[in-house]
Each structure stands twice: as structure tokens, then as C-alpha cells.
Amino acid sequence: MAGDRGYNPRRTACTDPEMPMADTENSPLARRLEAFLEETLPVDEAADMERKLRDDPKLRAQLADVIARRDRGDHSVGAVWQRERLTCADRSTLGSYLLDVLDDDERKYLEFHLNVIGCRYCRANLEDLESRRAEKLPIDGLSIDGGRRRRVYESSVGMLRKP
After folding, report:
1. Average pLDDT score, the chain
2. Domain boundary among 83, 114, 148
């Protein structure tokens, strides 16, 4: 059996037929390990999972199983939806949220996505936009303080002539 040969991080249920599957694909632990890999766990839970992974060889074997299943290619609608972040807002929508110009339904969805779902990806983008706004740095090539208008004017000063 697998226990007779000791722990080998390269031997998983996917590579060794004698080793039983560490966890089922839909178990809560497998879903948490997937979330850990996708970096979608809250920061404190991710730190706790990382600590447990360092200390527990069996948990590392389960993580290896999850990685192997993932590498085989999961093309379900849910997996593609999550992997491609289809529910995440783009930066322009997040900028509109900061400027408070979204319609009510979009604003409610974005607040749910940020505060209830706790999307770290969108939260990081929003925090970046907020910091750029506070520092009056250009956001995607556009300056908040009208710098774009000034640059266009300065670049065309010699081009405009009176008739």
C-alpha cells in the first residue's frame, strides 16, 4: 500500500494506482484547496491553509491531487466562468463606481461582488484606482486633474492657425 513506501510528493492518486484518491473532487476540502490555488480565499484563511500545507504531508498530497485534476483540464461552465473571472468588473466599471456614476443595479451588483463575495481581484483593482485617484496619478493614460486636455492642447499649439 501507499503507506508502506512513505510519503513521496510526486506520488499522488493520479500517478500511483495503489494510492487511494486523497479527496473527492466536490468535497469541501477539495473546493477550499481549489480556492487556495485560485487565490480566492480570504487572506487569513489562505495564510492558515498555507501553514497547514507546510506542516501536513497528507494535505500536500491532497493538494497535489487537486492540481493534477486541474491540469487534466476542467472545461465545465463553472470552471471556465471562475477561471476567466466573468463576474469581475473591468477597471472602467470600477472607475465609474468610484465616481458614483453607475446605475443602481450595477452599483448593487458591484457592492455585492466586492463586499459579500469578497473578490480579492476586484478589491485590488479598486484599491489601486482609489490610490491613483488620491495621488492624482494617471489612470490608464488619463489624468484625473485634466492633464490629458492640457497635453492635447500643448501638442497642437503650433498646428492651429488663424484663417
Report:
1. 75
2. 83
Q: What is the rounded average pLDDT of the residues 135-159? A: 62
Cβ distance 95 to 139 under 8 Å? yes
Segment 35-51, tens digit of pLDDT: 888 888 888 888 999 99
42 and 16 together in one domain: yes
In angstroms, the first-to-last Cα distance of the chain is 92
Residue 31 belongs to some domain of the structure: yes
Q: Which residues contact 18 (CB under 8 A, 6 or more apart)?
A: 1, 2
Task: Give pLDDT, residue 13.
Answer: 42
Cβ-contact 101, 91 below 8 angstroms: no
Please tell me whether residues 17 and 58 are part of one structural domain: yes
Residue 142 falls inside a structural domain: no
